[in-house]
Known about the structure:
Layout: H1 3-15, E1 20-22, H2 27-35, H3 45-57, E2 61-65, E3 71-75, H4 77-89, E4 103-108, H5 115-128, E5 131-134, E6 137-140, H6 145-155, E7 161-166, H7 172-178
Antiparallel strand pairs: 1-3, 2-3, 4-6, 4-7, 5-6
Helix pairs in contact: 1-3, 1-4, 5-6
Amino acid sequence: MKRGELKQKIILILLSGLTLGLSRSPKQYFKVLNLTGKAWEGIRQDSIRRTIKSLYKGGFVNERLNKDGTVSIVINDKGRKLAEFYSLDNLKINIPAIWDGNWRIVIFDIPEKFKKVREALRMHLRNLGFYELQKSVFVYPFPCLREIDLVVKFYNARKYIRLIAASSIDNELELQRKFNLKNK
Length: 184
């Protein structure tokens, strides 16, 4: 497992409300990890320690001393933001059985000084299945306001991005074929 993947798993576990309890005995924190399932099988203890240390040094987690002498690792606000980013990678749009006939169009005009945000937004839209109509115009046939809202909120780019619902587009037949909407 790559270090970035391990970091992602740990931060998402912390986001879910679990705390990692660390003590001189690794049994304490592996007990928590074992409860999370087979995704943790085969991960070396030293890799987990290094990754947690990296998260602590990066300011993503805090230590909390417990009464029994153990230390709990707890996610902080910076860590929550990182976890939101990781969960954006897993974001999916639910596709209804029947298409409502409307198009969702995301348009944006993000300044050059925020080029990385612009490119990340494009990547997320493509990953969600949007079709790139133009460089800063993406289209999708199904409701996706919640998902787009999460992405926009994460990048703090609301003032640059608009979501439009349209009942028709001049190249609608081409888009229907791309999204396989003839059967829906």
